[in-house]
Amino acid sequence: MMRSSFIVVSTIAGLLLSANVVAQDNWPRFRGTSAAGMGSGDPPVTWNVETGENVLWKTAIPGLGHSAPIVWEDRVFVTTAANSETDKPGLKIGWQGGTGDPAEDSGTWTWQVICLDKASGDTLWTTDCAQGEPEIKRHLKASHANCTPATDGELVVAFFGSEGLYCLDFQGEILWQVDFGRLHSGPWNAEELEWGFASSPIIYRDKVIVQCDCLNTGFVAILDLKTGEEIRRIDREDVSTWSTPAVVETDGQTQIVCNGYRQMAGYDFETGEQLWTLSGGGDVPVPTPLFAHDTIYITNGHGRSPTYAISPDARGDLTPDQDQAEVDESNGDQLPEGLVWYQPKDGS
């Protein structure tokens, strides 16, 4: 029996709203357009799933998926992984799942992309992308479908880590798939643990960009959206990360920005050249880099949890003295050129 979960307001803020609220923006990828995490409309600030207050609809989704939904016009796309043998895949939350041990699941899993009608919540189609025993175990707090899909309005790209990258049309047909092999994600100092993959794909200029920082491999891949052909691979030297890359577009250059522990870095989109680098972040990086006010912001959220503000024109090694106290723009001459300011701990 497959476990059923529900899409509710807390996971699709801006979709399951009172009937008179209409979101004005598409939400095409993790954290929305440009990863800014902001949309338009006037969503309610309170809701109640049990009573239906400010809930337009709710729809049962089989399996377990921690990926976020995406929206394009009248359609909502979600991913999930369903287990054939249990209706309780062993998910733990809070401190219950803090041991670091992976989940010991058995049975066959099915990795799915599901398309829903935004107005009614009706399931328009479900596509099974892969089926079998997972190549990698998952964290007790996580699922086997952690990566948020992405769309350009015509195609949908879904990444299931070791189970592959898939491109579907809006009718649910798989157009191509790419197998990157076994992607072993876990803590850098305990390679026997397996925590699952979580970096989401992004679409930019008819290209798909994926960041694969794992214990057994590390790279950024740029693929053709129409065909799945790999155009460029950028090698990375880092431990496992769970961060989604960002694309930073300025007048002079477009770069791919990756979070990391040993290698936070910016890469030229056209050539793959490393433009700048930083080391010494939190040891299990998750947050996506952000770009605002002509500045790149990176934080890590574990261990030391530093925060960096970086000029998009930065070049070379920007790593500051790790023992240096907080430095801001008023005394930024103490920092490498291109590092606008630096907070060594307590990032969020």
The amount of helix comes to under 10%
Low-confidence stretches: 1-23
Overall spatial form: globular
Estimated radius of gyration: 20 Å
Biggest sheet: strands, sense, closure? Answer: 5 strands, mixed
Overall pLDDT score: 87
**Main β-sheet, spatial strand arrangement:** 15-16-17-18-22
Distance between the termini: 39 Å
Strand portion, in percent? 25-35%
Please supply descriptive tags for the structure shown above.
single chain; 348 residues; mainly beta; 5-stranded mixed beta sheet; 4-stranded antiparallel beta sheet; 23 strands; 34% strand; globular; disordered N terminus
Describe the model.
The strands form six sheets. The protein has a five-stranded mixed β-sheet with strand order 15-16-17-18-22, with no helix packed on it. A four-stranded antiparallel β-sheet has the order 3-4-5-6, with no helix packed on it. A four-stranded antiparallel β-sheet has the order 7-8-9-10, with no helix packed on it. β16 (254-258) and β17 form a beta hairpin. The radius of gyration is 20 Å and the shape is globular. The protein has strands spanning 4-7, 59-62, 70-72, 75-83, 109-117, 123-132, 150-151, 155-159, 165-169, 174-178, 202-204, 207-213, 218-224, 230-235, 246-249, 254-258, 264-268, 274-278, 290-292, 295-299, 307-310, 316-317, 339-343. The model is unreliable at 1-23 (pLDDT under 50). The protein contains no helices and 23 strands. It is mainly β.
